[in-house]
Design goal:
about 270 residues, alpha/beta, 7 strands, globular
Length: about 270
């Protein structure tokens, strides 16, 4: 353990156990991961997360033909940070227009209340058991999907691997979601961006296994495999492998909760 990681998780431990809220219903077990082991072993308290479908877009009206998409490459904390930067640089969005949120996708199931949640000691709607992976969902113009795909594939570096290979299991598989999946009009451009980085894209079937060491990305039809927003706790969170992003970034979560871009999911959480 690095001291930085230990201190981060120790601070998590000090958070009061989360209470669950009931959200409106939205329209296979895996190996223990490096990060999950930390959360269970050091925190010793429920650090859970929940999910809901992608919230309505609040970005500029100039963004025509907006579409909900998602991207996943290991732990969603650092992926969200990179896509926040992309929304700002590619679309010129201001803080109150950002749509990138952590969440879950790629599985078939929710619980009876429509929830998908992070691992929690109450065993409520566990996303891993439901076959979902960690993703970041967003609402962007269709004409900019290619640009965001280029940013996505940069996450894999020169070796074609996610940044946190110590996290293993289907929850951390590489995946992306487009309306219509590989039949989306922009898919050829997305596939080309992947091939330029030595990545292979294949259709996801749902509940798919890990992609570690395979230079592989599953492509899902986001209409069939929708995005479920993660808990407030997991929004605009510091990554556990990099220096802290800073309070200005972390505080984006409070602003997004206040203006409705982040929803209460009904899963165990700290709000």
């Amino acid at each position: 353990l690095t001291m930085k990681t230990f201190c981060l998780l120790l601070s998590i431990c000090l958070v009061s156990p989360a209470s669950a809220y009931t959200a409106p219903k939205p329209n296979k077990p895996t190996t223990i991961s490096h990060r999950r082991a930390f959360l269970s072993k050091i925190a010793g308290a429920t650090i859970a997360a929940s999910a809901n479908t992608l919230s309505p877009n609040t970005a500029s009206a100039a963004d025509d033909n907006l579409q909900n998409v998602y991207w996943g490459a290991g732990c969603y904390w650092h992926v969200q940070h990179e896509f926040v930067l992309a929304e700002r640089s590619i679309l010129g969005r201001k803080d109150n227009e950002l749509t990138s949120l952590t969440g879950y996708a790629g599985g078939f199931k929710t619980d009876s209340e429509g929830r998908v949640c992070y691992h929690n000691f109450q065993s409520i709607a566990d996303y891993g058991k439901f076959g979902h992976g960690e993703v970041v969902g967003m609402t962007i113009p269709e004409s900019k999907i290619e640009d965001f795909a280029v940013e996505y594939f940069k996450l894999f570096g020169d070796k074609g691997e996610r940044a946190d290979p110590m996290d293993k299991g289907g929850e951390y598989r590489s995946l992306l979601g487009l309306p219509g999946g590989s039949k989306h009009p922009a898919f050829p451009q997305v596939e080309a961006a992947g091939k330029a980085r030595g990545m292979t894209l294949v259709d996801g079937k749902g509940n798919d296994p890990d992609t570690l060491g395979k230079r592989l990305v599953y492509v899902y039809d986001s209409n069939k495999f929708p995005f479920y927003q993660a808990e407030f706790y997991h929004q605009y969170h510091n990554d556990f492998l990099t220096p802290a992003y800073g309070k200005e970034y972390n505080n984006l979560a409070n602003a997004a909760l206040e203006d409705g871009r982040i929803k209460i999911t009904g899963c165990p959480d700290r709000v």
